[in-house]
Amino acid sequence: MKILGIESSCDETAVSVVEDGRRLLSDVIASQVDEHVQYGGVVPEIASRRHAENISGCAKRALSDASCTLEDIDAIAVTYAPGLIGALLVGVNFAKGLAAASGKPLVPVHHLRGHIAANYLTHPDLEPPFLALVVSGGHSHIVRVRDYTSFEILGRTRDDAAGECLDKAARAMGLPYPGGKNLDAAAKDGNARAFSFPHPQVEDAPMDMSFSGLKTYVINLIHRYEQRGEPIDVASLGASYIKAVVDCLTERVVMALDLTGEKKLVVAGGVSANSVLRRELDALAEKRGIALYKPRLSLCGDNGAMIASQGYYEYQAGCCARSDLNAYATMAIDINGYL
Ligand code: KG4
Ligand code: ZN
Fold first, then answer.
1. Candidates 136, 173, 272: which one to mutate for ligand 1, based on the most atoms within 8 Å of Cβ?
2. DSSP H or E run through 26
């Protein structure tokens, strides 16, 4: 079964064809990074416009790269939540148009479920149940994945996401957008013990996370250096900060593994590309004797393939949308059936 997956929740217009949820036939991504870099972050209005301009060309290329036409496609999957509402609407409306014109089923896909599914494309043997750490620019969750379409949130951030926290710190350190990736590179040879950071805990909810305090702490620290005219060792500050964020994540993963007894751990979302997080999770998995699944680097960020993959499983579970499908800026990962 071939699924066309469409993703436009943030600043990548992405369309892909995936067979049976696992086999990637094409993967087209039109990134807007070069344009948003001059503003230091994603400008929602620009993102929506570029999606509208690019989406049709991306879809055509995804089909031709997969050596097929719309006729060969069995269903059209699209990210409908969560994300920038104007950006999401471009993908949803385009998918609705394609579905109406071709008579193919329309499958709504939750963006974070898609990130998890990037692992099905990377690891053909991976099947639920497993525990997932989902860390992106807008979300940080520890999720128990009971089945392909059954999710239970065990922990979540109470404020900023891990990616947002890395992005804002990178910007304060003078690094260009996209911050998380550039901070990862800049911190490569830094001393992760040079600076110490607070260790935020959420009272009565040990698996929940809070990153806004860490973010404010590092921004204030940088301002103090600037006011004193003292240079900052960006590599070491970055390395120490990344370590603080990664420690917060891995500590909660350990709690969730203890609680659930799961022997399979999946990491997903843009931050799963982070070299320190990947290394620390490798070490954790080895120490505990569990299997760790990381998306291949090219599938960590937003892409259409992960939407097509999850779309396959949503379709198998009977989740199809009517022609009045809407987009939603926020939606919990554990909600089944679109609103
Ligand atoms: O999943 P994603 O591409 O978009 C959202 O759904 O939000 O995640 C983007 C986030 C950004 O915060 C970005 O800085 C972060 O992923 N990111 C990284 C790295 N690559 C991307 N963070 C840390 N290290 C990286 N190598
Ligand atoms: Zn994403």
1. 136
2. strand 23-31
Q: Are 235 and 190 in contact (CB under 8 A)?
A: yes
| pLDDT for the residue 332 | 96
Distance CA 145, CA 227 (A): 48
Alpha-carbon gap, residue 266 to 130, rounded angstroms:
7
**Which tokens sit at 40?**
């230091």
Packing angle, helices 234-260 and 275-288, rounded to 10:
40
Q: How far is Cα 236 from Cα 126, in angstroms, rounded to an integer?
A: 37
User: Please, are residues 127 and 260 in contact by the beta-carbon 8 Å criterion?
Assistant: no
Strand (E) or helix (H) holding 128? none
- Average pLDDT of 61-65? 98
Mean pLDDT of the chain: 97
In this predicted structure, what is the pLDDT of residue 337?
Answer: 76
Torsion sign (Cα): 84, 39, 186, 165: negative
Is residue 111 classed as helix, strand or coil in its secondary structure?
helix
CA distance 145 to 130: 5
Q: What is the pLDDT of residue 339?
A: 63
Identify the residue whose C-alpha is closest to ligand 1 atom 20: 181
